[in-house]
């Protein structure tokens, strides 16, 4: 109840998990992506974005902090807060505005924005389980619990 653990054997399976997350998100949700460098956070975001119809590349917005995507009239914001020095800086990149929209927010390194971020519907924690990865997915809201149930079902 409220959490699942998955083994993700390779990059393709990570992209597939992204697809499934995109489906249960219904296009609006807040998803935190937690894990060390190389854990697969951006790969998962790529799976989500491609599933929703984005056709180009997906890179971590390490220097710009956020990359906005508009796909079929739907807004998706991909954050990488690794270089955020202070959660208050989120205001300068318009963080608040993004969070108020009916959009999908994918947030890498949410710990850097602690206190200035909306609650996560789902938190995906990725860890090395070589040669693959493992994912611990936790629901943080009622909506997240529904998403998690759909993910299992
Ligand atoms: P992060 O954004 O967490 O720093 P990336 O998504 O950039 O990590 O992934 C780092 C590397 O790990 C990439 O080369 C990617 O292909 C690889 N990778 C991602 N998921 C898996 C997986 N489940 N098993 C093995 N390698 C993976
Ligand atoms: Mg990344």
UniProtKB/TrEMBL annotation:
Keywords: ATP-binding, Cytoplasm, Magnesium, Metal-binding, Nucleotide-binding, Transferase, tRNA processing. It comes from Endozoicomonas numazuensis. Signal peptide: none annotated. InterPro entries: P-loop_NTPase (IPR027417), T6A_TsaE (IPR003442). It is found in: Cytoplasm. One of its GO terms (cellular component) is cytoplasm. It holds the Pfam family TsaE. GO terms for molecular function: ATP binding; metal ion binding; transferase activity. The lineage of its organism: Bacteria, Pseudomonadati, Pseudomonadota, Gammaproteobacteria, Oceanospirillales. GO terms for biological process: tRNA threonylcarbamoyladenosine modification. Belongs to the TsaE family. The keyword ATP-binding applies. The keyword Lyase does not apply. This is tRNA threonylcarbamoyladenosine biosynthesis protein TsaE.
């Amino acid at each position: 109840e409220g959490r699942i653990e998955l083994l993700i054997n390779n990059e393709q399976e990570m992209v597939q998990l992204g697809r499934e997350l995109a489906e249960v998100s219904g296009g609006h949700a807040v998803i935190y992506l937690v894990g060390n460098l190389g854990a697969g956070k951006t790969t998962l975001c790529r799976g989500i974005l491609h599933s929703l119809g984005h056709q180009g590349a997906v890179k971590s917005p390490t220097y710009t902090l956020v990359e906005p995507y508009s796909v079929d009239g739907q807004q998706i914001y991909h954050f990488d807060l690794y270089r955020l020095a202070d959660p208050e800086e989120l205001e300068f990149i318009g963080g608040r505005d993004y969070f108020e929209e009916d959009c999908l927010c994918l947030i890498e390194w949410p710990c850097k924005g602690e206190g200035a971020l909306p609650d996560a519907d789902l938190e995906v924690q990725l860890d090395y389980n070589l040669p693959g990865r493992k994912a611990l997915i936790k629901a943080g809201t009622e909506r997240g619990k529904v998403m998690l149930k759909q993910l299992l079902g």
